[in-house]
Design brief:
The complex is a heterodimer of chains A (390) and B (374). Chain A has 13 helices and 7 strands. Chain A starts with a helix and ends with a helix. Chain A has 2 domains: 248 residues, MetI-like fold, CATH 1.10.3720; 62 residues. In chain A, helix 6 packs antiparallel against helix 7. Chain A has a 3-stranded antiparallel sheet with strand order 1-2-7. Chain B has 374 residues and is mainly α. Chain B has 15 helices and no strands. In chain B, helix 5 packs across helix 14 and helix 14 runs antiparallel to helix 15. The longest helix of chain B is centred in the last third of the chain and has 37 residues. The interface between A and B is large, with 54 and 53 residues.
Amino acid sequence: MAAPSSNPLRLLNDLRVRAVLYQVVAVALVVGIGLYLFGNVSRKLAEQNIATGFAYLDRPAGFVISQSFIAYDSSNSYARALLVGILNTVFVSIFAVLLSTVLGLVVGIARLSRNPMLSLLAKLYVEALRNVPLLLYLFLWYALIVAVFPPVREAWQPIPEVFVSNGGLIVPSLRWSPAHSGVLLAALAGVVLAFVVAGRLRRHRVATGIERRAWPIVLAASLLPPLLAALLLQPDLVVNWPEKGRFRITGGLQVTPEFTALLVGLGLSASAGIAEIVRAGILSVGRGQWEASRSVGLRDGQTMRLVVLPQALRVIVPPLTSSYLSTFKNSSLAIAIGYPDLVMVSNTTMNQTGQAIEGIAIFMLVYLGMSITISLFMNWYNARVALVER
Amino acid sequence: MATAAEMDALNLARAPLQPPRRRGLSAPLKRYFGTPLNALITLACLWLMVRLATAAWGWLVTRAVMEGGPEACKGGTGACWPFLAAKLRFMIFGFYPYDEHWRPALALALFLGAIIVSMMPRFWGRGLVWLWIAVPPICGVLMYGGVFGLPVVTTTNWGGLPLSFMLSFVGLALGFPLGVVLALARSSKLPAIQVIAIIFIEVVRGVPLVSILFMASVMLPLFMPDGLTVDKLLRAQVAIIIFAGAYIAETVRGGLQAVPKGQHEAAAALGLGYWLAMRKIILPQALKIVIPPLVNIFIGFFQDTTLVTIIGLLDFLDTVRASLRDPNWQGIAVIEGYVFAALVYAVFSYAMGAYSRFLERRLKTDHERSAPGG
């Protein structure tokens, strides 16, 4: 055999050549499978006469959504309906994350209590929530809400103008206008400003060692923007009173049972996980830290707040991130109990338009985008917490 | 004037060899009633537990309806036991033909028996491999039939607990090799392979399982060539395998990273190539580390299989819900049904969680014994 023809085979023994070869094969495989599937899909779509593309987003949706934070009715476009769904997903996720963090912190600390009764109770709480599927809990909370609360006709009125029934909790609300949105935005700006000011004050204190009372300044910083906005925009205070009809209650702000069941279900289930994360974090702080801070005269509560928790945070934040992410993703279970989140709105849209691929692509991209945003934010926070070390 | 604490310190300094005198409550009691606040907490917890226990006892026993039909339960304020008795077999086996229930029951027993045997350290060995090569096909044949005179039962009639176990077990069994391959690819030095693995893992982990199930149930038929239909159960199973693969990949990657660099270098020094080094040196160590977290992942997947309800498969949670919608029992025993399902899930999950903790302890001591100071 001639030398040139045996060269290619001998080349295979070269690690660098093999590395290139492996990669080429892998990429070719992925691209090939992708093209093959794409071919199948486009042929089938053409055969079944299914339209493609995102033109349907501008057409009127034609379905009602039971809960919306922006003005929406059935004549609005599919795009707006999806936006309503996204906002509903974000809204319930944020509340569930807050609820689970507070509960998880309390239960996690209770789990480490020196009182055996309290730690046993906390352990029972965690085990009961962790060992049962979230979906089952959602169904159970929803069934309990429907079973325990009276039908709308016999709605309870614990305080005048507040109605509690299995149709939800209804409270009087403000009639919303752009001016109100302006004040709300200003309030958010106030919170940001307060954080900035608090950070400055702390740095000043660390740099100079002069202790000054910080909280009035921080409070003023947080209140100033909304007050200014209120003075400038003059939002009218028209109250939207709920009115009780024969079958339903109209007006007011309505907290639906679906929302409540989803919030409670997500919040409680995640809190069990967070309790375990908090517990592991606190346990990771050495005994010496407790002893040292006691010997400088700090009380138990102060030790926890000033010495242990800041150090535990370093261990807590990374798993906490994944807990938040899974709460956010688990909110997609909303479809099972009929809370109009992104998945449910997309599902209705897909059923109406028949354009399943586009519908699924949209909600997968939204989830992916938000997941990445959350993990970037938490990584940034983690880096900050980690820097505190030295 | 010296305070009590200072006096104590003084006394201690004077008589260092004497054990401190015990005052007041004994140590165990002190943990319950040491301070007024602690006593209050103990009493509050005690009160809460007694309240919960009496409420549960009243609902389950004293106020419960023990016999009769739907009518007897309608007016009652306690648990409706006749509902469970009437619907138990449907909840467990779904629409599987009634006369053939012994088949899924036997398959379930075989499967659980094999799991229990594999959990016991004394049976760890080569025999387990043969056991797991034998058991799944036997279970499959029992469920599907068509041979040995067993009538065929198509997957559309499968349901209940066997389905839940099948989805989670097959998901893990096939997701595991996928996960290992993905983990190896992600920690590979070849950029193209690494990027493919990263994109796959992060996309699957970044979206909810519901969306992958949707994709499998709606889009998979479009992806297939003409004439090839994939049944609904298989579609859900594919979704769960993909999902499991991505999560297992990240766990295994953690294990790979935990293997010290020296092991890689030692393998290279012995002249082992990549595959041989991985198979003989790195993976055995990495996989041993990740066994306990893998059991936890399995618990998660066992619970997550409930989501197949959303795409219309009759898993255990869905057979329970179908029982609740039975015209005879509609609206009568809703809470009973969910509590029963919750207990079933809790028993299995708790058992696996306890086993995971046991494994963690055992593998840890093994490690310390074999490598002192390591």
